[in-house]
């Protein structure tokens, strides 16, 4: 049986069409080198702006962005091999030569592989808030992580963040402006009015509010100063309760 030309997920099309198999490409990187940073030109075979999707899940945002911007190269990672398999398959079937997927945690990737000042955009959608206080230390969104993202971005580079957790968002709006000129995006993203990610689609269908923000790399903060600043800022130690907790548990079970 031939695959459907268009895939659906929770009633929303996944970006792009499945092409005939002779037009498929390979978007997966089986193993990253032990040491970074990555050589983007070697990976993609050209020089182009680089967009990072940290914690990409099944790849919905990366697929849509890569289809809309063929002149831009996209590198997406997630810590779970299962979801990267889904994302890679979809990228392959859509013939997206400007996409690569790899298995890696976002903290290590930002610190070790992203490099210095060569990335145009970093996107982070719905980082796991870890409601259990015993796991709070695993939260990705820390001052040190922001310093690493700041270092990786080119001057005036773009940092996009999104969550449905109001406690996490309250922390984000406190710390992000130290590194980025930051503003809230109140309305849905114009390119994806029903949701840029699987998580956003489900959260909105459950009536949860989505918090979105756009930051531009502050040029008045040098990388060394950003690291020093990160040491002085509070860690994300909020305690989170609410309906989004049930969605987190559901997502964890869905992701394995």
Automatic annotation (TrEMBL):
Residue spans of biased composition, Basic and acidic residues class: 246-256
Known EC number: 2.1.1.33
Keywords: Methyltransferase, S-adenosyl-L-methionine, Transferase, tRNA processing
The organism's place on the tree of life at top rank: Bacteria
EC top class named in words: transferase
Reactions it catalyzes: guanosine(46) in tRNA + S-adenosyl-L-methionine = N(7)-methylguanosine(46) in tRNA + S-adenosyl-L-homocysteine
InterPro entries per UniProt: SAM-dependent_MTases_sf, tRNA_(Gua-N-7)_MeTrfase_Trmb
Keyword Ribonucleoprotein part of the UniProt annotation: no
Example of a GO MF term: tRNA (guanine(46)-N7)-methyltransferase activity
GO CC field: tRNA methyltransferase complex
Region (Disordered): 236-256
Record's function text: Catalyzes the formation of N(7)-methylguanine at position 46 (m7G46) in tRNA.
Name the UniProt record assigns to this protein: tRNA (guanine(46)-N(7))-methyltransferase
UniProt organism field: Paludisphaera borealis
